[in-house]
What does this fold into?
Amino acid sequence: MLFTSNKTTLGLSQILTADQLAFFNQNGFIHIKQFVDRQTVNLFLSEIQWIEQQWLAENREKVNGTPIKYGYDEQGQRIVQRFAFASQFSPILEAFLNDDRLQGLTQLLAPYEGRISPQEKDGLVVNHYVRTPESNFSRMGWHTDSPRDLFLGQRILPMLNVGLHLDDCPQSNGGLRVLPGTHRQHALMTLFRKKQFIDHRPDRREVGFDIEAGDLTIHNGNLWHRVEQSPNLGASSRRRVMYIPIITGNKKPKNASSKTPFYHRFAKRIQD
It folds into this structure.
């Protein structure tokens, strides 16, 4: 295993190495190259497009209480920009969540017992960022994943945000930005270091990534992060990412009768 010069990109073996664990504990993130190959990426994209077609035909508004976010692509066609519980609609995506390498990432939450649960939180989320004059989902402001627990009336628990990237995206085209080490800060700084979701300003300490389709990024849920808007319009701005939450705590699966959590209504107001 080799570190890159800025120590943000690591390889992955079947079991995480001591160096990988130490890097993650110190910085709160890891970037893994070529976690899946291009053929697998194309298979996943095909599954996501099939789900999208079904939801558009049904005019589906929610899945298990979580709203579906719609927008428009560069051709003016209506698209799904945020999927929730996507694996429940695809045996192929469901099988991917059982990948031994993904399951092995739960050790990053030690001493807590982590799990991948496609029935909890928002399940397997797929975000489709594309910048067009009609789209309002082309970036996301600085935030941590901690306020969600507070909105649900429970204490902040550790979690991992694991993103499988389905498009090439160099730093120059926007994408994920993180503030290394901020997962180890005081709880008040986890909540109030920046204005959650509202602040889009670059930070001199932030780290970006040169992403290729098939790469995996992993970051601690308490790490401050944002999604930078692409400077491009249309197809060249497109970034599609599958997010696999690895969580802890009591199991709280959702179903078709689940209510919409307050934080989704809050997020809608600040993103629209």
Q: What stands out?
A: The radius of gyration is 17 Å. The mean pLDDT is 87. The first strand starts at residue 9 and ends at 10. The first helix runs from residue 18 to 27.
